[in-house]
Structure formats: C-alpha cells, structure tokens
Amino acid sequence: xxxxxxxxxxxECGVGVSTVSRAINNHPDISEQTRKRIMEVIKxxxxxxxxxxxxxxxxxxxxxxxxIKGIDNPFFQSMIKVLExxxxxxxxxxxxHRVDSNQDELEVALQLIKERKLKGIIFLGGCFSHDExxxxxIRVPFVLSTISMFKNVDKNIYSSVxxxxxxxxxKAVDCLCDYGHEKIAILAAQPxxxxxxxxxxxxxxxxxxxxxxxxxxxLIRYTLDEENAFTMENGYKLMKELLQSGEEFxxxxxxxxxxxxxxxxxxxxxxxxxxxxxxxxxxDGLDICYYYNPSISTIRQPVEDMARETSxxxxxxxxxxxxxxxxxxxxxxxxxxSIGRLNK
Amino acid sequence: xxxxxxxxxxxECGVGVSTVSRAINNHPDISEQTRKRIMEVIKxxxxxxxxxxxxxxxxxxxxxxxxIKGIDNPFFQSMIKVLExxxxxxxxxxxxHRVDSNQDELEVALQLIKERKLKGIIFLGGCFSHDExxxxxIRVPFVLSTISMFKNVDKNIYSSVxxxxxxxxxKAVDCLCDYGHEKIAILAAQPxxxxxxxxxxxxxxxxxxxxxxxxxxxLIRYTLDEENAFTMENGYKLMKELLQSGEEFxxxxxxxxxxxxxxxxxxxxxxxxxxxxxxxxxxDGLDICYYYNPSISTIRQPVEDMARETSxxxxxxxxxxxxxxxxxxxxxxxxxxSIGRLNK
Lengths: 344, 344
Description:
Chain A is elongated. Chain A has 3 domains: 6-57, Orthogonal Bundle (434 Repressor (Amino-terminal Domain)), CATH 1.10.260.40; 60-163 and 302-329, Response regulator (Rossmann fold), CATH 3.40.50.2300; 165-301, Rossmann fold, CATH 3.40.50.2300. In chain A, the strands form 3 sheets. Chain A has a 6-stranded parallel β-sheet with strand order 2-1-3-4-5-11, with helices on both faces. Chain A has helices spanning 6-13, 17-24, 32-44, 53-60, 77-89, 105-115, 132-135, 165-178, 196-210, 232-245, 257-269, 288-291, 303-320; strands at 63-69, 93-99, 118-124, 142-145, 159-163, 184-187, 220-221, 251-254, 279-281, 298-300, 326-329, 332-334. By secondary structure, chain A is of the alpha/beta class. In chain A, strand 1 (63-69), helix 5 and strand 2 (93-99) form a beta-alpha-beta unit. The longest helix of chain A is centred in the last third of the chain and has 18 residues, at 303-320. Chain A has 13 helices and 12 strands.
C-alpha cells in the first residue's frame, strides 16, 4: 500500500495542498467549516503528513504539567502513577516537571506556561503560601494537590485536593495522648513553611491544648536549612539533635513517614528501643511503614483517590469550564508496633 | 511598543505572509534558504506569532520520552531526577511514560513515536528480551538504561548503560559465602525474565559453582504471577513461602532491595532474627536499606552516574550522529548489619 500524501488529502477534499496545510496548522486564513472538513478526511485516512507531522501532532496532543516538589518522596509515587494514567487516558500529554526545594513553584509554572502549550497544571507538594495576587497570574486551570492553603486567599481563584492537615495531625497526636504520652516531640519542616508543616503543627498544638497539656517549644523541632525537609535523612538529623538536646519526651511525631523512618533509625542507633523508650508516629501512609521494623504508626492519606479527584477537578475546569472547587479527604489512623502504652 | 506581527516579519523579509507561515510551519513548498532567512528575522525580533504560536512552540521544544517499567520502584527515583534535569537542561521536553508490568515496552515505544514527536527514548527497567528484528523497528535513537540484554542481539543497533549483572550478583553471593554461608536462597523475578533476573541468577550460580557448592533448585524462588516482581510486597510473599517450605538455608539474597525489605519483614514476623537466624542481602543500593532495622547489605548501583551517562549517550546519538555504545558500571558491595558470620 502506497502511503497517503498531503496531495491525496487535498484531492479528496477538492482543495489545494496549501489549504490542507493551513487546516493542519490552524492558520487563520481558512474558514472553520473547511478546516473541519479537511481534518475529518485526514482522520479518516489516518494521514500523518511528513514535514508537517510535528505540527499536526502538536494540535492533537495538549499538555498537562505536573509540578512536583520533592520528586524523591515516595509519597508522590502512587499519585504520579494515577495522574499519569488519567492524563494519558484523556489523550493529553503528561509533563512531569521537578521543582527544586528552594525554587518558587509559581515562577516555574509561569515559565512553563510561556514555553509550552499547557492546558492545565497540577501542583504536588511543597510549601504553598503565595498570595492571591501571584496566584492570579496563572491563567490556566490548576489544582493544588496534597497542599493546603494557609493564608486567606480567595477560594474562587484556585482548586485544591488535600486532607484536613490540622485535624489529621490532631488525630495523630490524640492517639499518642490516648496511649498515655504527654511529652510529645514533633519533627517539622522549616519555620517559614506555613502550609503543610504549619498546619500540622497547629493540629499538634490543638491536641495538647484540648487536654490542657503544656506546649514545650523545645520539643517542636524545625528544619533549619533550605533542604527538602520531608526526607529520611532530615528526620534522622532532627532526631539525633533532639536526643542530644537532653529534652525529656516519650513520643515523637514526624510530619512525614520518611522523616519518621529516619527518626526511628536515630533512636535505634542510640541503643534506645521503639516503643519501649520512645513511641513513633508518622504521617502519609507509605507502604514502607508497614515493612519497617518495628512497623510504624501513621495517618494514611488516600493518595490514589486524591490523585483521581485532582484529575477530575482539573479536567472539569478545562473541558467543562467548571468553577474552582475544593475537596478535603479524610485520613486513616493506622496504629502499629511503634506505639506503646506509657505506664505512669 | 506595538507588538510585532507576522506582517512585519513578512515585510522585513520581503515575502508574503503565507511564506512566513510556511517557514514557521516547516512547510515543504519553501526553499531551505528562504526558510532560514525568515527564521532568523523571527529570532531577531523575538517574534511569537499569535495563531501559529503553538506550532512555533512545537518546533522549539522536542521531546525525549523516558519509558519506565516499575515507576513505583524507588530505585528509579534518583535516576528520573537526574534524567529530567539533563533533558530540561538541554531544552528538550521530558516525557515520562509508565509501562505496565505486563505491557510490551516496544509496543508502547512504537505507539509513542507515532503519536508524539520523539527525538529519543530512554528505557528504564523491565525485562528486556526482545529480538533484533523488533528492536530495529524503533527508528529514533534509544538507550536501554539499567537493562542488560541477554540474547545475542547485534550491539550496533542499540545503546545501553547498566552494571554487569552477572558479576555484581556473583559479588553479592561471594560475600555471603565469605561469611560462611553455603545454603543461600535467591528471590528472583519470573522464570521467563531472561534479562536482569536471569543474569543475576547466573551470577548466583556462578558463585556457588566456583566454590563447588551444590545448587539447590528449591532455593531459587521465582515469582510466579505477572505482577511486578521487584517490590517489597513480592519479596515478603516469596519469603513467606520459602519459610513455610521447610527448605534449609541460612542466608537469602533478593535481587532487589525492595524485595530484601519485604523478605526481612517476613523473617522478623516469623519471630526469626536477622542476621542470627538468616542473613539478608539485597541489590540496588536504596537509601532505605541504610535506614532499615537492621540495616541491609546490598550492591549499590551508581544510579546518578548511570543516569548522566544514559543522557550523554542519547544526546550524542541525537545531536552528533554518534554510533551506538555500551557502558558497564561497577557496583559497590555494602556490608551492613543484615549479614552475620556463620559458625559451622
């Protein structure tokens, strides 16, 4: 079978080759009616023009960018998997773009919109505390996923999918309190992280306050460098410092599972036992927490449902011109070997 | 300042608007000389045509696809990070495409080439045992990364970056033998995986044979379903079965770190100790092996160097028309708490 050429298409449509080319390239000098007719013939014939193939392709495939801060956080892996499935399923191109921990995700997004033909953006992870004016600069639909907004930003200008970080965090600390712990340390991100980390600290304080337990600021351990805070490495480092500080505590709550694993390593390395000496609680619901020894308690975020909802909201914004919306998911408290009852 | 229009460009070049459009869209009905001249004027004026902006964009951004089998394998995370940096740095679009464990990566690649404007492909992970004829169907430069080819395929038709799986695997088993172990189990992928898993089993057998140790086929534990073999879940499952089988052994070598972690969980759950009852060895060099309790011995692959070399080879193929090449990296044996000396 001889390959179909642009000439064959032109002949079948009864137009010149340049008209077909115009149709393909979305040129303004062609009526919408003619363009539609030509594109149909092209489609019927499965025609992919040689030299203009790249342009035709570009018209067909539009891009959704997923901007991810902390790409090496395993928490995002199953989310990326679902998002990629959903985006591919809808015939969009899935563009994964890493944002460095010290980069401003809005800057990166604006640059990407300029460079690429983005139909929508999903922001995953990071500290999201931009003000309204800056958020408004993003002129394509976007969803903040697993990110809560802290500041008072008009809810109509963005969409979001997350857990209720304050309440879920409170749940984690409540659990430790229920097991008799009163001196509970928290391993947090940078003090200037007013989104996820800030909210989880609020939940931590709320749990203690409700029980009239004193808040010891020295047990709130912030990350003090610019590095990615949510890692095993950082959890290990913060825990080492805490152990060396001499502060008294019987339980530690890390605001990510990766940090909880690093913290556990630091505890075990100093010849202390989990949970006999220190109870450990994480946050996220990574599989590795089940496999760790001892298995680590956590708040499990329903990541796959959250990823599906993120894509649902985004495509509603893009394809149905829907209004921005916000969806809060509930986390699940998972109690494992890492928590012990404190006998007072 | 008034925005520059396509008409201004046409005027400056002394051609008609449609000629400029043709130049932008790489239309065949225009001489290369004219096209070059027009593109230069466009460049000088920083002109981004309105309606044809999308096409111009497409000309500027070309795509490298990274096809990954086992996207949830943490082993690939740092590789993806480096590849994405390298590809973005060279101003190409980074397209991450997940391949299901039961999908044929070549089919997926051919489909992608058809659909998108790919300049090159990187294959990450999976069982790669396609024959020469099928590999030749891929008409863009590609590199198999962390994948060894098992069958006799002409080395001139593909590029590859990997460790020497046979030798590195032998190194892992040699280490266990040096600690006095003779009855060593291996947790492997499917029997039909003749690439990574097949090669690592060969290294395992080679180590035993050189020491005149008998090979007990019952200690070679294959994955028997279609699922992703290299996971914690699968390591856990295979180890449970092995423990229940009643076969005698004193050490277990899992062909991936994730499997080694799953296996460790199964051992600890059955109230056995590591390394007192069973020594454990993994393969890959994941960070989590350091953080696990006990820390797990492994063969560390230099993933970041391997990722950089992969991108180097690919861009040499694309931009300098280089010949296909093959690069073997050496792994590093890391001995940790999970290995104990066997007193006979």
